[in-house]
Amino acid sequence: ATTLGKEGGAAEARKMLDEMLEENKGEARLRKMRVACAKSEGDVPGAVAALTEYLEDFGADDEAWLELGKLYAERCEYEKALFCYEEVLCARPFDPNSHRRMGEVLYTMGGEENIRDAKHHFAAAIDFTNGKDIRALYAVILCVKKLRIMSSKRGEEFKDNGALELADAATERLLQRYASDNETLLS
């Protein structure tokens, strides 16, 4: 089935998989292959359905939750993507990529509470990479800027000194990184 899928016979591969799954309904590997088959055919709703069905039986599979979260995010179904990424974070609480993904979805959803939560996830990604996650550094700065704008629109002064310090530290870290990466340009 895998070879057929690679050679362009996705319909044949799917048929073979369905036949094998009839005999081995609990086979995780075959069920994951069905998801891959649907994705290769561009059948995103089919891949989502197959992954959802798979996760009903194998709910501890964080890779499957991650994949489902990505599919939902691609479809702009951010609430569902957020749920999936929360499941991933339960399995990988110290994974910077998981925190960054969570932050990206929260930031995209918008709203003050989501932006604050996004900032915390980006800060975690920065901490877990010892300040080396460039995307998280930029994202923290964007979150703080957005929160300041929201406060300003309400006629309030932004008073979250911790957030301001975090944004300043992120800015400093980015400047250091660019200076070290581009020493020849700065001479």
UniProtKB/TrEMBL annotation:
Keywords, alphabetical: Endoplasmic reticulum, Membrane, Repeat, TPR repeat
GO CC term, one of those recorded: EMC complex
Keyword GTP-binding: no
TPR repeats: 62-95
Gene3D superfamilies: Tetratricopeptide repeat domain
EMC2 TPR-like domain segment(s): 9-105
Keyword Membrane: yes
Cellular compartment(s): Endoplasmic reticulum membrane
Membrane topology: Peripheral membrane protein
PANTHER family the UniProt entry points to: TETRATRICOPEPTIDE REPEAT PROTEIN (PTHR12760)
Known function: Part of the endoplasmic reticulum membrane protein complex (EMC) that enables the energy-independent insertion into endoplasmic reticulum membranes of newly synthesized membrane proteins.
The family this protein is said to belong to: Belongs to the EMC2 family.
Subunit annotation: Component of the ER membrane protein complex (EMC).
Record's protein name: ER membrane protein complex subunit 2
Organism: Ostreococcus lucimarinus (strain CCE9901)
